Amino acid sequence: MIKFVSPLLILAGLVALSGCKPDPYRSYTLYTQDMPNGVVIPAARPVELASNVTLAQPVAQKPKANIKRIDRVMSARKGQDLAVIVDVSEQNMRVSIDGQLAYQWPISTAREGHHTPRGEYGVQWLSEFHKSSLYNDAPMPHSIFFNGNFAIHGTYDVNAIGSPASAGCVRLMPDDAAVLFDAVEAVGERNVSIVVRD
After folding, report:
1. Which stretch of DSSP H or E encloses residue 2?
2. What confidence tens digit (pLDDT) does each residue in 61-74 have?
């Protein structure tokens, strides 16, 4: 019995000395099963810095392109037509529901050396929490696949939105991608048309 208890006591002492403590701020993953339709953002954590430490500037949350955003409160319903027009030269996307413009958002398409396919497409498949099998498990939240491996999806590289930056997919701000994904699910995949043009 003593031989069994000793290693446990030693391990407990090592943990205590290492400073390992439970996280009092409760770290969250971005998506939880408790809130499948929302994003959980952790509360601000207190930061203690030495006097010689310089904080990095926060990442800009504004897209590079000066595109007028349009976000109308429109509920997409089953059977409605949803039209997505991707304008590569303008780096923007327009989304219409039953012929009425609902959204206009900045995007990122293929950077130099890569290609975003042009043409008229439908939805091939959806993947809410997708990770790229081609690019080191890069997160592709709210993916709407329209042509093989090419998809419209959210990105966490928000600083690049508004300029060509992707390997070929059409990238959106994460919240915009979630709105579009929900709208596609609401109207039904067969009622969605996607046009990618210069």
Report:
1. helix 2-18
2. 445 557 789 999 88
Q: Strand, helix or coil at 142? A: strand
Is there a domain that residue 46 lies in?
no
Contacts of 186 (CB under 8 A, 6+ apart): 75, 76, 77, 78, 80
41 found inside a domain: no
Q: Give Cβ neighbours of residue 20 (< 8 Å, ≥ 6 apart).
A: none
Per the domain annotation, does 6 fall within a domain?
no
Render pLDDT for 101-135 as a digit per residue (tens, 0 to 9).
999 999 999 999 999 999 999 999 999 987 776 66
Query: Which candidate, 162, 109, 121, 166, places its Cα nearest to that of 145?
Result: 121
Residues 6+ apart with CB under 8 A from 44: none
Task: Give the chain's domain count.
Answer: 1
